[in-house]
Amino acid sequence: MLLVVHADQRQFSLRDSASHLTGSGWTPAALDHRIASEPGGIAIVTARSDVVESSVTLVPSPPAVIAEAEHVVEADLPVPSGRVVISGPSDYPSQEKFFSVVAGLYRARVSYVPAGPPSVTWNEHEFGEHYRYVVELWPVTDPSGVSVLRQGASVWDG
């Protein structure tokens, strides 16, 4: 599923449709890892407070790391309802996007792939690089913590 998401406040989230993010995942480490993980879902840190391109793909097992990705991080995504909500923090419910999966626990890998500006209106005055945020989900049986597979530059968002 290819998406353009309004990443207001330099973030967008994936969560179970029956959950709401509380902000409990925002720790100093989350900013470095670029993902805030909490029981209801994950918030993905973006380089811009702007519209961003993303994709969400369901795969059967852990895929190969995308060669051109500058940063790659993984976290658990519990989806007990079988419905993933993808949204920015200021989106109205009518602006949320949905992705159906078999109910269960998933591992979410987020790859930060350099890109140009999205084809839709964007905020050319916003600081920060353009990335395509590639999210790959696969089912897992056991929970695990946040894992950084490739750490990007420490100064990366303008």
Question: TL;DR?
Answer:
Helices cover 4% and strands 46% of the residues.
Account of the protein in words:
The chain is globular and about 40 Å long. The model has no long low-confidence stretch (mean pLDDT 90). It has one helix at 28-33; strands spanning 2-7, 11-16, 35-38, 41-45, 50-58, 71-79, 83-87, 97-100, 104-114, 131-140, 147-150. The strands form two sheets. The chain has a six-stranded mixed beta sheet, with no helix packed on it. The two termini are 28 Å apart. By secondary structure, the chain is mainly beta. It is built from one helix and eleven strands.
SSE layout:
Elements: E1 2-7, E2 11-16, H1 28-33, E3 35-38, E4 41-45, E5 50-58, E6 71-79, E7 83-87, E8 97-100, E9 104-114, E10 131-140, E11 147-150
Parallel strand pairs: 5-10
Antiparallel strand pairs: 1-5, 2-4, 2-7, 3-4, 6-9, 6-11, 7-8, 9-10
